[in-house]
Amino acid sequence: MASPKPVPPQPAAAADSPAKKVDWSNFRDHLATADQQGRRKWMYPRKVSGRFFRWRTWFSWLLLVIMFGGPFVTIHGNPLLMMNIPARKFVVLGQIFWPQDMIIFAVAVLLFAVGIIVFTTAFGRLWCGWACPQTVMMEMVFRKIEYAIEGDAHNQRQLNAAPWTPQKFLKKAFKHGIFFGLSFLVGNVLLSYIIGWHDLYRIIVDPPARHLTGLGFMIAFSLLFYGIFARFREQACTFVCPYGRLQSLLLDENSIVVAYDYKRGEKRGPLRRAQKFGERRYAGFGDCVACNQCVSVCPTGIDIRDGTQMECVHCTACMDACDAVMAKTGSQPGLIRYASLNGIERGRPLRFTPRLAAYGVVLAGLAAALTLMLVLRSDVEATVLRAPGSLFQQMPDGRFSNLYTVRVVNKTSREMPVELRLESPAGSLNVMGQGTIVVPAQKLSENSVLIELDPAVMKSGTTPLVIGVYSGGKELESLKTAFIGPRN
Ligand code: SF4
Ligand code: SF4
User: Fold this and answer.
1) Is ligand 1 within 6 A of the CB of residue 292?
2) Minimum CA distance residue for ligand 1 atom 6
3) 297 lines ligand 1 (CB under 6 A)
4) What is the pLDDT of residue 144?
5) Mind listing the pLDDT tens digit for each residue in 350-376?
6) What distance in angstroms lies between residue 322's CA and the mean position of ligand 1's atoms?
7) Measured from the CB, is residue 313 less than 6 Å from ligand 2?
């Protein structure tokens, strides 16, 4: 097993303190990013290279193109994604959703949550390491800029410890200038996902006084992202993101995680010069040469050899660092690798198990259900209500009339002519002031509708009505309401 770590001296605890003493030798008892006084320990992860880092770099370029290009892509004239909360208008893959579509939204959120649970149970925090915008921006953009300006971890440490000189000031000012510029860009991209890039453009080119709220958000988002990427960093994943916290609930012994193969690695110990691996094994040592390279590249400062931890964002840096060490020592790569606890305990390589297949089927089923709901979603949403305060009226020809308010929402990006027909019982339906309703694109039309019935088709008191909503001769929706008349 792992050799015990030296226990640093502990601050004296008040004898009457109800607080449990921190066990500094137990990694689960304290944060890797805080010292014994509770002060933040600034992380200096070493530069990493290797096959996972290469694949992640390519993948993050793809994600960055999607992320930054997304607001400018339109489908049928609508943006790819827009979450306009102030205007209560939401666009996903070019489909406009209105507050009336809240059921679809609620189901989508539910499916999303179930999807996350199923995905995480099967594949661990694959999302965090490969696709989370926080990790992608932090590790693939901001961290690389920092390396380019200040150098690798040890150069950064030296620079921060050094007294202020004009050269240090220039370096820091240059770095933070770029960080703020990038944060401004990221903040604007986020804003364009909320209000659309056309509105964002207007905020930029119009006189500032006309868009004080928009400008306020622009500055707030820029400062927020600057704060996150320049200072807060890994703390966002550890303290703020609920997904990391959920990990302990969602993972089990079959979940795939970034894991240290302790069976192969222990007992760890340095590789002596000219020592062969066969001799090491004979002396009871495993493949881990206790070089700490896996710890030095970790952006959250943890030692993955201690086991799966909440702070681990599955960035794969330790896998690459350890593979490089294994290559130098002439051992097989994968001492730290994607594996499940069961896989490590039984020494099995990662396989596509029936369990993973079952989870994959559940995920595909959820995606199919949501797709079906979106495909079957009506382009028009109509509601009918009796006009407030109105009573039934008897006409000179003996028929009775009721007045209604019909609201029609056009969810498409084109103007839509809509026709209302009284389906049952037989009678007449008139849209007051116009024949056909024409609902402008993405707008709501409110219409007064008069329905007249012959007493012969009416029931005593209340008669059920069915109104069909048509466009281009196709029935889009069927509305049910009641016609009020005299009691016999
Ligand atoms: S990088 Fe590999 S060999 Fe080195 S300490 Fe970490 S697990 Fe052990
Ligand atoms: S333990 Fe490894 S995978 Fe997890 S955050 Fe640290 S370097 Fe990344």
Assistant:
1) yes
2) 294
3) no
4) 97
5) 667 777 778 778 878 877 887 887 777
6) 5
7) yes
Q: Identify the pLDDT of residue 435.
A: 66
pLDDT in tens, 182-226: 999 999 999 999 988 888 999 989 888 888 988 999 999 999 999
What is the reported pTM?
Answer: 0.77
- Our answer on whether the CB atom of 422 is closer than 6 Å to any ligand 2 atom is no
Confidence (pLDDT) at 242: 87
- Atom 6 in ligand 2: residue holding the nearest Cα: 298
The reply to whether ligand 2 has any atom less than 6 angstroms from the CB of 128 is no
Q: Whose CA is nearest to atom 3 of ligand 1?
A: 288
SS3 letters across the chain:
CCCCCCCCCCCCCCCCCCCCCCCCCCHHHCCCCECCCCCECCCCCCCCCCHHHHHHHHHHHHHHHHHHHHHHCEECCEECEEEECCCCEEEECCEEECHHHHHHHHHHHHHHHHHHHHHHHHHCCHHHHHCCHHHHHHHHHHHHHHHHHHCCHHHHHHHHHCCCCHHHHHHHHHHHHHHHHHHHHHHHHHHHHHHCHHHHHHHHHCCHHHHHHHHHHHHHHHHHHHHHHHHHCHHHHHHHCHHHHHHHHHCCCCCCEEEECHHHHCCCCCCCCCCCHHHHHHCCCCCCCCCCHHHHCCCCCCCHHHCCCCCCCCCCHHHHHHHHHHHHHCCCCCCEEEECHHHHHCCCCCCCCHHHHHHHHHHHHHHHHHHHHHHCCCCEEEEEEECCCCCCEECCCCCEEEEEEEEEEECCCCCEEEEEEEEECCCEEEECCCCCEEECCCCEEEEEEEEEECHHHCCCCEEEEEEEEEECCEEEEEEEEEEECCCC
Residue 8: is its pLDDT beyond 60? no
Residue nearest to atom 2 of ligand 1 (CA): 322
* 314 CA: nearest ligand 2 atom: 3
Note the pLDDT of residue 223.
97
Question: What is the CA(30)–ligand 2 centre distance, in A?
Answer: 17
Report CA(315)–ligand 2 centroid distance (Å): 5
